[in-house]
Amino acid sequence: MGVNAKQIQKINYFNKVSEDLCSEIAKVVKQKKCSPKTTLLKEGETGDTMLLIFQGQVEVSKNMMVKTSSGFTMSTKSIIRLETTDPSPANKPITEPTVSVVKAPAFGIGEFSLVLDDAKRTSHVTAMTDIDYGIIKLEDFSNIVDKHPSIGGSVYFEVAKSAVNNLATATQDISNLTQAFFFALAK
Amino acid sequence: MDTNKKAETKSSSMDDIDKKIHANQVLYDQLHQSLVDEIVSKDDKDQKKEKSRKPDVSSTRNFLLKLSDYYQSNELFRYALWGFVAVFFSTTILTIIEYPLFSSSVKGDVGDGFMFGGDEPNWVDTFFHTFWWAVVTFTTVGYGDVSPETHLGKFLTIIIMILNLGIVTMLTGAVSSVLVAARLKGDDTLDETKFYGHLIIAGWNPAVQSALRLIEANEDSASVVILINETEEEIIKRAVSGFDRLDITHLSENFTQEGVLKKAFIEECGTFMIVPDESGLLPNEKPDEDKTVLTALTAKSILEDIQVVAYILDEEYISHLHRANVNEIVFPDEHIPHMLAKHVTDPGVPQLFDELITQEKQDKGIQVVSIPKGLVGLTHNKVSAYYKFKHKWLLVGYAIKKAGFSLEEQMGESGSPIIRDMIKEQLDGAGIKLSSDEHVIVEINPDDEYIIDGKHKALVLR
Fold first, then answer.
1. Which of B262, B61, B423, B248 lies closest to A173 in space, CA to CA?
2. For A123-146, what is the HEC assignment?
3. Which residue in A has a C-alpha nearest to residue B323's C-alpha?
């Protein structure tokens, strides 16, 4: 039993890809399962795969310098949690979320790997529940795109859209941080 | 031909101007008739609201609270109360223990005079007699007309007398300390009811008297003033003797202390002004401006919202005052170079300033007036016309109360929530407030279409 086209289509990057083509993609997706606490992606590693989360909840976190009572230390700070809704996670997350939980039918992570040869992972992704996921390799995906160029347009468009959105947020973050910085300096 | 045309256009443009003036007058009439009444009634309502602002807690509760406050704060009352309790307590005990003795001696002492129990003394007579003994003993007068006779009574009396030694000593001490304090402070208790929105001036120097004279002249400004400084009473009295409108109270205490500021009802004040304090300085000594910064910090720690105006002589302190969140800083030296230069570049301008700023008459010079509510939301040219036609004042610009810059507001919902939260958390942790204080900015001669909101006040030249 493998991954079917319907599962692929639930992921926003593949929304607009026809079911036929999704089943093409499904053929190259390697289905996997993992238990909670498994690290799916590690920040800073390069990877040529994109993960398709079909079921479960994952936490996205980043290494950051934080101030504690004993001074500055590097620590892993969670940023967001992603949870599938179709189907929803099979069991409860191991820890209560301290950050917002974004819900979607299913989602893809590490999507930049579809565009870049050796994209660096920008954050850690850790399983919070049992996860049902699939792995798709850049090479396999490129082959499909070569065969069916129509896939490329819509998928790359979605990837570009998320990249642009991220960039806009990042710009705003920089502006917020700059203001906070001046604010702190002025005191 | 050409000249004719020119003349025509000139006259037509004159017509235009006339029309415009007429239009302004029409505008004035409209504003005057419809708005002014509304405005006046609105303002009246507002004032009534403010007056009825006083809290109405039930009077018994209030009384008990006041009594307990009084007990806490008044040393004399405290000891006197305990003294009375001790006398009463020992009377009761001795009445019980030595009843036969005191009872029989009542008759001998009073003879056939008035007694509660008729011919035979009853317990009231005995109790009163014992009370008499207790007071005689407590005041160390000791007539010796009655004294306990049983061993138990004597033993208790010993204890009472020893206790009494402490109580009398403390009571005496309290009486003298209260007397001394009263002499030192003069009339110390300020009438709470009148202090609301008042002006407090901490520190004394000759500029204060001039400032008060200018405040006196403007009838719209606060009339209740508290001066806090340690300059001699005589000097202050002489300096403030000429004021009719202002109600000036002098607190001769150290204004850097929190308790003193609270005594001046700083939480209720309209403006808290700190000036370089020359109290007790020799003519060549410089005021200690550290005190200004310290006082500003104290005031802001009592209540962040207090409007603090600091007058500073040394530029070096400006940054400290900014850090203390002082609302306005007056630093006279910064004007001097401009005034000097303008005498060369634009002769007349410094004279204009002199004329405007130093004008002491109440109805002349530059003033800030509140804008009637009915004008809020209108454009600058309309408001300007209102003042021009209604009062014949020239509207120069606006003083605007700007809420401080708020980082939180500025960030809003932009960027990622995680970053925003992190910023708040970290700044909070470092004790940095996310907003700066309210302060006044001026907008001079804005565009005609400039919209006036409720935070504007008009700067008019009368």
1. B423
2. CEEEECCCEEEEEEEHHHHHHHHH
3. A187
Q: What is the domain-level CATH number for residue A58? A: 2.60.120.10
Check if B429 contacts A (Cβ < 8 Å). yes
Q: What is the C-alpha separation between B169 and B164, in angstroms, rounded?
A: 8
Q: Which residues numbered 77-116 in A keep a CB inside 8 Å of some CB on B?
A: 77, 79-80, 99-100
* Domain positions in chain B: 60-182, 186-330
Range of the domain at A17: 5-186
A162: chain B residues, CB-CB within 8 Å:
none
Instruction: Please check whether residue A178 touches B, CB under 8 A.
Output: no
B186-330: CATH number: 3.40.50.720
Confirm or reject contact between B426 and chain A (CB < 8 A): yes
Q: How many CB pairs under 8 A join A and B?
A: 45
Q: How many CB atoms lie within 10 A of CB B120?
A: 10
From A172, A173, A180, residue closest to B407, measured CB to CB: A180
A169 and chain B in contact, CB less than 8 A:
yes
The CATH number assigned to the domain with range B60-182 reads 1.10.287.70
B2-26 as b/e, with b when 16 or more CB fall inside 10 Å? Answer: eeeeeeeeeeeeeeeeeeeeeebee
> What sign for the dihedral angle of Cα A144, A146, A147, A149?
positive
Is the Cβ pair B419, A173 closer than 8 Å? yes
Residue among B334, B329, B411 nearest A172 (CA)? B411
**pLDDT tens digit sequence for B357-411:** 776 666 677 788 888 888 888 888 888 888 888 888 888 888 887 766 777 777 8
* pLDDT in 10s for each residue of chain A, 187 residues: 577 878 888 888 888 888 888 888 888 888 888 888 888 888 888 888 888 888 889 998 888 777 677 777 888 888 888 888 888 888 888 888 788 888 888 888 887 777 777 778 888 899 899 888 888 888 888 888 888 888 888 888 888 888 898 899 889 889 888 888 887 777 5
**Residue B271 near residue B299 (C-beta atoms within 8 A):** no
A143 near B CB under 8 A = no
Q: Which of A80, A100, A179 sits opposite B410 (nearest CB)?
A: A179
The total domain count for chain A is 1
Task: List, for residues B104-158, the tens digit of each pLDDT value.
Answer: 777 665 555 556 666 667 778 778 888 888 888 877 788 877 788 788 888 888 8
